[in-house]
Specification:
single chain; 4-stranded antiparallel sheet
Length: 291
């Protein structure tokens, strides 16, 4: 066991099942509606979809980096993913219709962007505080809150105002950040620095250390799910799925300790399902409920 369980566990795991998909699959992401999972290769190449009703798999699109933080429309009909040109390293954005499989280009030859953001009203990509619509026309982000990383720092764009959030650096020690995200109610930030995850207010105040936690995702506004992993410097040697409150309390291991290495969880909209992959490319679906 990688960490001690809280004395009073708040969550019960009612089921864990492997999805018998026909290919090795990694980095699952729930599609709204909970009937589909987006997956990719271990290095985030390409994007496919698993139908959870019949466990069928369909390959959607080629692309280096396509499986890294794809953005899905609220109605679950389209996904926006990236494609990195291996020769020029230029980035492009593609829109994939999950119903028809049709792929269309949104923007090409971008120098850099960290995060794809989809507005509730139309498909737009957040590129360091700007938006890109389907025709690839940039415009300033307004009336929204968007978090990304720039130069390994957390950056918040709040109604077009850019703020660098760096609560851990000191004059003697510069800290880098990754895995930044915004809580569903847009009141808190979460990010990883070193081996630990943190939650703070939007300006970096009220910082809470959640302990060792990688690839964290929000379950709801009060709890986050991530992986507590160990490595030997070259490879992962252990990893379990963990849930913890944003106040740093009620930390609980959800997965059962075993030799299987469980990684990169995703949580569905109502917080009752957790999907994750093993290092062998197996996809698992866990059902949890709050006691």
């Amino acid at each position: 066991m990688l960490s001690p369980l809280a004395s009073a566990q708040k969550f019960e795991v009612t089921e864990v099942k492997q999805i018998p998909v026909s290919v090795e699959a990694y980095h699952p992401v729930f599609v709204p509606g909970d009937n589909q999972l987006l997956v990719s290769e271990e290095d985030y190449y390409g994007l496919g979809v698993i139908n959870l009703k019949d466990n069928s798999y369909k390959f959607l699109v080629e692309g280096r980096g396509a499986g890294y933080m794809p953005a899905i429309t609220a109605d679950g009909t389209s996904v926006v993913c990236r494609d990195i040109n291996e020769e020029t390293m230029a980035l492009s954005l593609k829109n994939v219709n999950l119903q028809t499989g049709a792929v269309s280009a949104i923007a090409d030859n971008l120098d850099h962007f960290n995060r794809i953001n989809i507005n509730a009203d139309e498909v737009e990509m957040g590129i360091e505080g700007a938006k890109v619509n389907r025709r690839g026309v940039k415009r300033q982000a307004a009336n929204n809150i968007f978090v990304t990383e720039e130069d390994l720092k957390v950056v918040v764009y709040n109604n077009g105002v850019r703020t660098v959030v760096d609560p851990l650096s000191t004059p003697e020690r510069d800290v880098n950040y990754c895995w930044s995200s915004l809580s569903p109610d847009k009141q808190h930030l979460m990010f990883v620095a070193g081996n630990d995850a943190y939650v703070s207010n939007l300006d970096g105040s009220g910082l809470v250390n959640l302990g060792r936690l990688h690839a964290p995702v929000w379950r709801d506004n009060e709890f986050v799910v991530g992986m507590e992993d160990k490595d030997d410097g070259n490879r992962f040697i252990a990893s379990e799925i963990v849930i913890v409150g944003i106040d740093g309390n009620n930390r609980q291991q959800l997965s059962t300790t075993s030799s299987e290495i469980k990684m990169f969880p995703s949580v569905n909209a109502d917080g009752t399902k957790v999907a994750y992959h093993s290092t062998e490319g197996k996809i698992y679906l866990m059902t949890i409920k709050e006691k």
